[in-house]
Design brief:
By secondary structure, the chain is of the alpha+beta class. 22% of the residues lie in helices and 34% in strands. It is built from 6 helices and 20 strands. Strand 16, helix 4 and strand 17 form a beta-alpha-beta unit. 42% of the residues are buried. The C terminus is likely disordered.
């Protein structure tokens, strides 16, 4: 299947607080020329949205270059990926991307409302000829040849979340309606631990789904909202592949660290076929 490159039809701006820093943050998405790819700009430094530039994956995906870092890029990247955007310039003011409501909903809906411009050049695709995998203990990501892009995700958490499963093709309308609104989540005791570590300073019940022993403190958007958010994170991380993944991804209990290992592994295997991991002059 031939995919054409796309960009946002008009600039879009978002502002709010950062989930972990609690600091004011702003990001503007600007249309970009064919072949540009997704590129962040912060403090005058251009950082390509490619796996080589990931510098941390502990609680979020953080990219960096020349001493400049941008945290929590996964929800924004998931929105761009899920809505089919291949070229965009993202101007960031602040240490991370605004958390919004803890999902990619506001970003994806804004892209859909503004519209997408299809460009004449074809989009690079990653079409694996054989299986690849990355493992970290009992966590696993497998990439298999497939006719279309699809994801199977098994999430397994302590009660009251339990084991949840997702199987689908999370892009376009399906992404917008079924994945984009899934919020970041955690347990009450985890939130307390993060605050003690100086993280989650911007977290509130307005931008994160919190589970107490008896159940969620807010109404769920879907019964299996946690696994949908894990798929959202996976999409944002796989946007760092720099090409459209025509493959099947099977993820078992995976997270940012393993996604990064997998995308870096794939880019090293097929680097010559993908956009160069360097900033334009």
């Amino acid at each position: 299947m031939t995919h054409y490159q796309t960009t946002v039809r008009e600039p879009l701006a978002f502002e709010g607080v950062g989930l972990h820093s609690g600091a004011p943050c702003r990001v503007q998405i600007r249309p970009a020329a064919p072949g540009t790819g997704l590129r962040f700009v912060s403090s005058g430094v251009e950082i390509p949205a490619l796996a080589e530039y990931v510098v941390e994956t502990a609680r979020a995906t953080v990219i960096g270059k020349d001493g400049v870092t941008i945290s929590t890029v996964e929800h924004m990247l998931a929105a761009l990926f899920g809505m089919g955007i291949s070229n965009a310039e993202l101007l960031v003011d602040g240490p991370e991307i605004p958390v919004a409501d803890g999902s990619a909903k506001i970003f994806a809906e804004a892209i859909a409302a503004a519209g997408v411009t299809t460009q004449r050049e074809t989009r690079a695709s990653f079409v694996p000829s054989s299986a690849s995998f990355a493992r970290d203990g009992d966590r696993l990501v497998i990439v298999l040849p497939a006719a279309t892009f699809c994801v199977k995700f098994v999430a397994d958490f302590a009660a009251p979340i339990g084991t949840q499963f997702f199987d689908g093709e999370p892009n376009g309308d399906m992404f917008l309606k079924e994945i984009a609104g899934a919020r970041t989540f955690g347990y009450v005791h985890e939130v307390e631990a993060l605050l003690k570590r100086g993280l989650a300073k911007g977290g509130t019940l307005e931008n994160a789904l919190v589970f107490a022993p008896a159940g969620p403190l807010q109404p769920l958007r879907w019964e299996n909202e946690p696994v949908r958010h894990k798929v959202l994170d996976l999409l944002g991380d796989f946007a760092l592949l720099g090409a459209w993944p025509q493959c099947e991804i099977i993820a078992i209990k995976s997270g940012h660290k393993l996604h990064c290992i997998m995308t870096q592994q794939l880019r090293s295997q097929i680097g010559a076929e993908l956009p160069a991991a360097k900033a334009s002059s």
